[in-house]
């Protein structure tokens, strides 16, 4: 009988170790992803790019964008791009503000270059609005490429030309630029988003260029060749909340190459509050849940078809983000179980896990702040505190054994008792899961009087990463409950840098 | 091809070559990140091992 219990005990320890290891999967995947980034110096598309200025039809979906759409049109017409090869189509999604009047005035001012397309019935989502414009531009012979963008983004002077040069290669179906956070009056939230965009675009999409598979070309700056749009059915796929991701997947499934151009910079106004970010990212995260299910026959099917979406590296990267909250929770459960059964082993695997996480975090952040100098100068604090101040301390504890639990208390003439040490360790082990609850709490109290001060403080403590994970958890729940897939538009005020 | 468009094309080629060259900066940036990592690991091994 003793032998049976010993086997059961050993089996339980192995199960707990496997649970802890699930937390290592996203960390290792991220580490590999960031190590691939420098290879973009050699493996890129510049060798096949050349100066190329096809006729570009710019589609600007607009619903109540009166505050921003005029500036957007002006900036588009000022781009370093031949005027005779550029047309702007604003698709008004039955706005109730002065959007149609603003566009009509611009169309009169720039006859033959600016067009107003109006939908009678709005509110069906961005893909439906875009398709109204896609039908019009594909119905004429003029357009050789179609640029899909958001009404509030500002293309920098040479951005479009830098994107179109990749279309000189007929294998390329679509190109995206770097959407940088560009609010004129940044706050803590926009600074966090700015550093996130550096990591998710300037770093991660370069890695995707190298690996040959793209998860999503940003919907705010997605340039398609006419042939690519026609190949995917002459329309942007509807039916999900992630029309840009589905268009990216469909293009690759049809054998076209996707290119991210890091030097085509597009400025966008991003949410300045937790609640606004939550609504925007919930839409994205639910869209990703839908995409994960929609392309279930694509994942991890290496070597099938002309695309690289079935690559193990690409699948691991996609699901590491998609399942990150689960990995964090399972890892916490594993660590707590081991602490109760085999505390020395728990300490060993905890150190291995968090040291790997710490080194990955340091490498990605040091690289990240250099990739965009403006964001690096503006958001270095947020880069530092991206995983949260408490996780930062946990990483220090893992990297430098004894510093937090022995040497620091000793500075104040204190010593941790065994019970205190146990509770501190337990707190550290559950922290990666508790941080998500802390982020959700920050959203709950944001609109209270104290919340205006406490919510940012909480986000700095628990981290921006756990906030995104908390939103992902919410997206699982909403999808599971089959909550309405309402398109909640992110509110814009026109405070993007001019 | 007009003089202006020839000039524009030359400029466009120069810009393309410039941004392609700028990608080599990634190696330096990644190198700096590796140096920071090595420094941290050295401190750990020297003082906390």
Automatic annotation (TrEMBL), chain A:
Q: What is its EC number?
A: 2.4.-.-
SUPFAM superfamilies, A to Z: Nucleotide-diphospho-sugar transferases
Enumerate the InterPro entries for this protein: Nucleotide-diphossugar_trans
Q: Keywords in UniProt for this one?
A: Glycosyltransferase, Membrane, Transferase, Transmembrane, Transmembrane helix
List the transmembrane segments: 12-36, 318-340, 352-371, 383-400, 420-441, 453-473
Report the domain of life of the source organism: Bacteria
Q: Which Pfam families match?
A: Glyco_tranf_2_3
Q: Which GO terms describe its molecular function?
A: glycosyltransferase activity
Q: Give the matching CDD domains.
A: CESA_like
Q: Gene3D superfamilies given for it?
A: Spore Coat Polysaccharide Biosynthesis Protein SpsA, Chain A
Name the protein family: Belongs to the glycosyltransferase 2 family.
Name of the featured protein:
Glycosyltransferase
Organism of derivation? Protaetiibacter mangrovi
UniProtKB/TrEMBL annotation, chain B:
Q: List keywords of the entry alphabetically.
A: Membrane, Transmembrane, Transmembrane helix
Q: Which residues span the membrane? A: 24-43
Does this entry carry the keyword Transmembrane helix?
A: yes
Q: Does the keyword Transmembrane apply?
A: yes
Mind telling me what this protein is named? Uncharacterized protein
User: Which species is this UniProt entry from?
Assistant: Protaetiibacter mangrovi
